[in-house]
Amino acid sequence: MEYRDIAYGYVSALGFIQLQWDPVGRVRATRVFTGETAVTCEGCDEPIPDDAEPDEVLRRLARCHDQKLFGVWDWWAFATWGTDSMYRRARHGADLRLTADELLAVLMLAARHDSVRLDVRHYKGPRAWDAQLWTARPDSPTSWFGPVTVDAGLARTLLRAAEHLMPSGTATATASTAELLGYLLSTDRETVAYGLDNLSESDAYEIFCFGVLGYDPANPSGVLLHPDLFIQRGNRQRSTFRAD
Question: Which of 107, 144, 151, 228 ranks highest by number of CB atoms within 10 Å?
């Protein structure tokens, strides 16, 4: 099905979203790193104005789903939206000093957690690779989202999404991890190396969660989740400017 308009957004509590819509009222949202999709039903066919903003379109989709998207109730706190050019820039690595190999190493460190599976399918030297990614569903200990194919470009996008969505500026473990993420995304090679040397498995997993889901399932403060998402998995409690 073809849609006329498209936007990409870093959306808190939802992650990195591809949003598509057309004037007749059809809307589709895709959670890029899980492959989940949500679409409007046939009854939600109110025309969408040509000047509609992505936030307005996403709210329309949420209303169609009883104010819940991807297991998250009600609204998201903030979003950064852009066109496909933002997506292309997010994939590109010219402004980063992280190599493709190091991006893979960060994902592999996150995949040591029991909620992430990563299968490297093609490795073509230190500059190119692709892998299959699975993420455990917060609402089911034995079910997984995916597989989603990721490469170095999407790994960069995941880190940029986490940078947008991870809280910082407070004396918390998350703030400390956000600081490490800032080091990884630095333009200074020595700073990047410091970030890699000090990145732990728990840091990598927390970054992964904010990039993929838009929040950390172990600490869902401020996120309104479906009651079914408050389940115990291991020792963790599971419980949303324009940049054209």
Answer: 107
